[in-house]
Amino acid sequence: xxxxxxxxxxxxxxxxxxxxxxxxxxxxxxxxxxxxxxxxxxxxxxxxxxxxxxxxxxxxxxxxxxxxxxxxxxxxxxxxxxxxxxxxxxxxxxxxxxxxxxxxxxxxxxxxxxxxxxxxxxxxxxxxxxxxxxxxxxxxxxxxxxxxxxxxxxxxxxxxxxxxxxxxxxxxxxxxxxxxxxxxxxxxxxxxxxxxxxxxxxxxxxxxxxxxxxxxxxxxxxxxxxxxxxxxxxxxxxxxxxxxxxxxxxxxxxxxxxxxxxxxxxxxxxxxxxxxxxxxxxxxxxxxxxxxxxxxxxxxxxx
Length: 303
Known about the structure:
- About 20% of the residues lie in helices and about 40% in strands.
- The chain is of the alpha+beta class.
- The termini are close together.
- It has two domains: about 140 residues, Diaminopimelate Epimerase, Chain A, domain 1; about 160 residues, Diaminopimelate Epimerase, Chain A, domain 1, CATH 3.10.310.10.
- The chain has an 18-stranded mixed sheet that branches.
């Protein structure tokens, strides 16, 4: 009989101060003994859609791998924030705050920091890659894929763009919160658009939100592991903020700390914090952070 391995697992609600809000993330701790196939089977058993596995690293403070039910993913923003928060709660990075640390991911080495808030809670800030931009001209096709008329898209003032700070993302500005709420993707058309534009996420956004302190409200649609609307999307949020700052579409004083709402239309309200640093005419640094709540703690038995 093969020995059974038991590992600690956590379910975390990321980018929220409230339980059962934000984006849920499973985190498997001390997963160095697991082979790839067992990570994939574990992710499928936990029901993801994405699961972060925490391992030791020879290159950084920690190594993270991400599995959906059927494949390994290059990165997951909310799983990264959740896993690093869980380690910070165990003082894995020391008892002081504000220092720079590094996480090894399939996407490369990502710097991060942990900050202590006045109420004693911790916020993890994850750096993203320098942004890459390209313009998108298929306005009519994008509108149709999103289930809205082209007049609902704010494309003259804020051109449609493809931006990547790690994950290539289609950014679509909507004229109002009402227009944003009306977005109802035609799944097959949008999946075709993902393939044609070579993007891994589509973000629709509008200025303002449900909270006065909000900069933007966003909705994010992802093609994998199955097509779905995401409650909170760390990597696409960084891409959106970088694009607005790079092209001077947001006041400089707001660029230093933006708050992006997401998930309200699917019952998982979230708040993603983004800091963007611009030097001269180019964005030099993008950081995404947020709060985390733990909803489940347990152990999983693996063959």
